[in-house]
TrEMBL record:
Its main location: cytoplasm. Its EC number is 5.1.1.7. InterPro entries: DAP_epimerase_DapF (IPR001653). Catalyzes the stereoinversion of LL-2,6-diaminopimelate (L,L-DAP) to meso-diaminopimelate (meso-DAP), a precursor of L-lysine. Homodimer. The gene is dapF. This is Diaminopimelate epimerase.
Amino acid sequence: MSALNTVPFEKFHGTGNDFVVVDAEDPVPDRPEFARTHCDRDAGISLTESDRRGADGVLFLALEDRYDPPRVVMTLVQPDGSVAAMCGNGARVAAAWAAERAETTEVMIDTPAGTRRATVEDDYVSVEMGVPSFAPRDVPLDSGEELVEAEVGDLTVTAVNTGVPHAVAIVDDVDGVDLESVAPSIRHAPLFPEGANVTIASPDGNGGFRQRTFERGVEGETQSCGTGAVAVVAVAKRLGLVEGDDPVSVSPPGGELSVTVPDEGTALLGGPAVHEGDGEADVVFRQR
């Protein structure tokens, strides 16, 4: 593998869910290989400001500021080279990046899962997440029936799509689950023809939830997952653990998120989006 040239990048994180951000105008001919190389946790991108190498994905962002409000086209390439249809924390990072350049507090984000509206106040970003769906064809499921509190692998899960598919298990204590051990069999279960993120949650005693997620495409646990946080609240409402339209606190290992899943209308995800630093990254290609 050789370096052809370099492109500037910025590094952001949303409650520990970290991303390399590249302006889509900068040419990266092989985006999957770029992501596989620079997201690697052992040998990937590093900043002097942080001792954590690699990232949970690369956000290629294209700002279209001729619109009102400005639009940003978001493409998230994951560490395995695949493209994610939606990422809640990635969308919040994209909004923060675009809002700074367009000098605005409101941004429209174009994703493969649809267009989402975001508002930015300092480093706090709220983004529309669409309407969670339990429908088998939306998740999708290899079944004609919704999957609600069913045994899959070692967990009792409910399947929901919050932009990407999630298998959510409400457990007594998230710290008592060996997620890296139990998640892969669920993530790859034949019931999920496109795979699924595996999210576990437990009540925090204050009306909110603690959350951990094993992410499809990362193939491991991340410090935070925005679509997973929304999935937790959507499933909790479905199971009668949460009522009403008030925001619910969801705390992954990387921080705290605010999630609203109304009885009607789009879900909302709010939390910090933090700029970590800038650098130059090799544009890589494979020698053949």
